[in-house]
Amino acid sequence: MDRTRSRTGAVVGSLTALALALTGLFTGGAGSANADSTDAGTRAVPKHAVTGYWQNFDNGAQVQKLADVQDEYDIVAVAFADATATQGEITFNLDSAGLGGYTVDEFKADIKAKQAAGKSVIISVGGEKGAVAVNDSASANAFADSTYKLMREYGFDGVDIDLENGLNSTYMTQALKSLAAKAGSGLVLTMAPQTIDMQSPSNEYFKTALAVKDILTVVNMQYYNSGSMLGCDGKVYSQGTVDFLTGLACIQLENGLAPPQVGIGVPASSRAAGGGYASPDVVNSALDCLAKGTGCGSFKPSRTYPGIRGAMAWSTNWDATAGSAWSTSVGAHVHGLP
């Protein structure tokens, strides 16, 4: 995530290289079952949910207190945790000055109020400039211990993994399993990988998601800032289209993630990302295509996924800047899915 404006992702320069990496992907495999249920702990997370990132900084989008976050958001990811000098360890520093004097006590009270309204509030780790590294057992333990400490201190319901500068599946899995053991079945665990990270189940991010499937709430991949990508049918699709959203979601749905563990992550406005903005109508059509087989573009999945979790926006602040048009439209649509 570029805190000056938006999330940033890897621009794909060679689809040929991707195609080589994806050899054998589209035939499915042992992980291609599509159960509509999961054992993931989902405290306060409805069957169909909307996730939104709340900015703990002022980058030109409308500044919000947590209490100002639109009611349509079921999961609010606080962006972001900060790295410490200890590898793997995280902390959180509220930007009180940048947020108009917002105090820690007010922030904590707002978390409780959101939870009382049936929402989940989680701490997001990473972003485009995030420097958190979990590359060995010691850093995995430090990550789990410090994340759990923040959950207890602020009342966070869980954690969002948004590491855009590399991820080690072995040790991130260790860290998340350890955190789940501490937090219990109520843990809300989300991920926001870039498109390149989820093109194949052999990629480290995808491997992590599959390894923690028993505790995973939802993967809201960033369907933007990536350029054209391959869909699950091996064809190239342009970002910002229904086919891009459905074709890339299909890769996850046909390679091990259950429908409730897949969400569509998009910019809340055209100003929120460098590329790949998809209008609410496009997002809603993609959700209908995946859930009901209607509203599809040229690509139509071979099956429907009525349990699809929903959608994610970067960010609640950019949404507010644009008059909350995204959450008003997509929020109502997600909550109306079968």
TrEMBL record:
The keyword Transport does not apply. InterPro entries: Chitinase_II/V-like_cat, GH, Glyco_hydro18_cat, Glyco_hydro_18_chit_AS, Glycosyl_Hydrlase18_Chitinase. Its EC number is 3.2.1.14. Transmembrane segments: none annotated. One of its GO terms (molecular function) is chitin binding. SMART domains: Glyco_18. GO terms for biological process: carbohydrate metabolic process. It is an enzyme of class 3 (hydrolase). Keywords: Glycosidase, Hydrolase, Signal. Residues 48-338 form the GH18 domain. SUPFAM superfamilies: (Trans)glycosidases (SSF51445). Residues 1-35 form the signal peptide. It holds the Pfam family Glyco_hydro_18. Belongs to the glycosyl hydrolase 18 family. This is chitinase. It comes from Streptomyces formicae.
